[in-house]
């Protein structure tokens, strides 16, 4: 008999250099409080598509999504689990309602609003779009200081990819066309 899965931990992984596997190992080793680990190989499909694959595979009541270069400094992934709300940890000492680099989505919220929009190329603006989608659906977003992470590699993957500036500009326009403003 399968045991119940409370927390699924989803990591979209994109290997851009020889150091990335070790960065991923450190990330996973630092995490506490998950029942199921889902690594989604992002072979250039983009952040949103990789996350959506992980969300579709997840069996947990709560699904924590994080970048592959996060280090848990305080708390447990279970501390991010709040019924009906999307919760993000304190990142690099800063607290805000939503962080695209790590957030926890209850299954009930995922069933209501779905995953991230896949209209964006590779990355940029897909997490902003999700935040706007949550806000439009009336889903509370909460930042909590009970969980703290370090995100020392922020932007590393994207800025090593050829053509990142051009993709950024195209995605910025897509975001504006959809929401009629910038994040």
Concise synopsis of the structure shown:
The protein has 183 residues and is α/β, with parallel strands linked by helices.
- Hey, roughly how much beta strand do the residues contain? 15-25%
Which CATH C-level class is it? Alpha Beta
Sheet bearing the most strands, described?
4 strands, mixed
Average pLDDT confidence is: 91
How many DSSP-defined strands?
Answer: 7
What name does CATH use for the topology? Spore Coat Polysaccharide Biosynthesis Protein SpsA, Chain A
From the alpha-carbon coordinates, what is the Rg to the nearest angstrom?
16 Å
| CATH architecture annotation name | Alpha-Beta Complex
Describe the protein in words.
This protein is of the alpha/beta class. The protein has a single domain (7-179), classed as Alpha-Beta Complex (Spore Coat Polysaccharide Biosynthesis Protein SpsA, Chain A), CATH 3.90.550. 33% of the residues lie in helices and 23% in strands. It has six helices and seven strands, in the order βαβαββββααβαα. It has helices at 20-30, 47-57, 107-113, 126-136, 156-159, 164-179; strands at residues 7-13, 36-41, 62-66, 71-74, 86-91, 102-106, 141-150. The strands form two sheets. Strands 2-1-3-6 form a four-stranded mixed beta sheet. It has a three-stranded mixed beta sheet with strand order 4-7-5. Strand 1, helix 1 (20-30) and strand 2 (36-41) form a beta-alpha-beta unit. The longest helix is centred in the C-terminal third of the chain and has 16 residues, at 164-179. The N and C termini lie far apart (46 Å). The mean pLDDT is 91.
């Amino acid at each position: 008999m399968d045991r119940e899965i409370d927390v699924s931990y989803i990591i979209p992984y994109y290997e851009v250099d020889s150091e990335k596997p070790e960065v991923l190992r450190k990330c996973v080793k630092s995490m506490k409080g998950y029942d199921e680990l889902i690594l989604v190989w992002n072979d250039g499909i983009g952040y949103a598509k990789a996350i959506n694959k992980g969300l579709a595979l997840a069996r947990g009541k709560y699904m924590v999504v994080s970048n592959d270069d996060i280090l848990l400094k305080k708390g447990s992934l279970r501390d991010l689990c709040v019924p009906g709300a999307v919760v993000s940890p304190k990142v690099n000492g800063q607290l805000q309602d939503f962080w695209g680099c790590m957030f926890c989505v209850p299954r009930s919220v995922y069933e209501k609003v779905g995953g991230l929009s896949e209209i964006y190329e590779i990355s940029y603006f897909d997490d902003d779009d999700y935040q706007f989608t949550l806000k439009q659906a009336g889903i509370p977003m909460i930042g909590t200081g009970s969980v703290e992470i370090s995100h020392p590699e922020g932007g590393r993957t994207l800025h090593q990819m050829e053509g990142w500036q051009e993709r950024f500009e195209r995605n910025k326009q897509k975001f504006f066309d959809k929401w009629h403003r910038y994040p």
